[in-house]
Amino acid sequence: MQPLKPSRRDPAPSRVAYRLQRLWLTPVFRIFMRAGLPVALVVGLIGGYFSQPENREAVYGKFAELRRSIEERPEFMVKLMAIDGATPSIGDDIREIVPVDFPVSSFDLDLPGIHDRIAELDAVERVDVRIRAGGILQVQIIERTPAAVWRVGQDLELLDAVGHRVAVISSRLERADLPLLAGEGAEKHVPEALALLAAAEPVRGRVRGLVRIGSRRWDVVLDREQRILLPDQNPIPAFEQVMALVQARDLLERDIIVVDMRNQNRPTLRMGRPAIAEMRRIRAAHPGAYRE
Q: pTM for the full model?
């Protein structure tokens, strides 16, 4: 009996190998095996680790400790606050509404919030808040400039040139250098009031103030109980007409109580009692000189 010859190995792949080779030729499968599977394994490991509460707390604690160590480095610490451009009283108000305990990390400062709180102060027109080199919280202030005193009821308020409230005062004597406005709605027409006062140069020393009547128009109050009643429309040209008469005819040096310009086509003068009595006396003495 002849010995069996060893069979030659079939070079064709098995079905499993063939299918694996075909699968490997698929681009999506290759990408998944090279990138997706490792990522999925890493995510799974990390997810499994963080699924334990004690592991999460340990990691969060390490991150918080690292962050705090960076934030509290000397170069990030703010040691004091400097306020420029503000009067001492406004500076005290700013320190009161910005209660920051120094030193503090610059990461813990809410600069927009500080800016907004300071900007809410009536006396502050503009404010700039920033952290300056050297650990200084720099607050630059531009204050509103009072332009008039507004009397409403028993209260006195300082207004700037656009009618914004600056401060409250207790006595007119505190700002006797500023013109006096009175009446409801006067604060809404401060620019017009200031324009009237600028046109009152011929009687500047005699002006006691401007009164807003019915929230519609102005009365210019002078000494000797004289008043100039202005219209609700175009009061400045009407007032300039009166000032022209003052310069040309010394109108307000006469015994006149009221100059009524509410109807510019028909100005009216109201005389004082002595002048009326004198006119009646002249009429009685010269009946034909005047007609009723």
A: 0.69
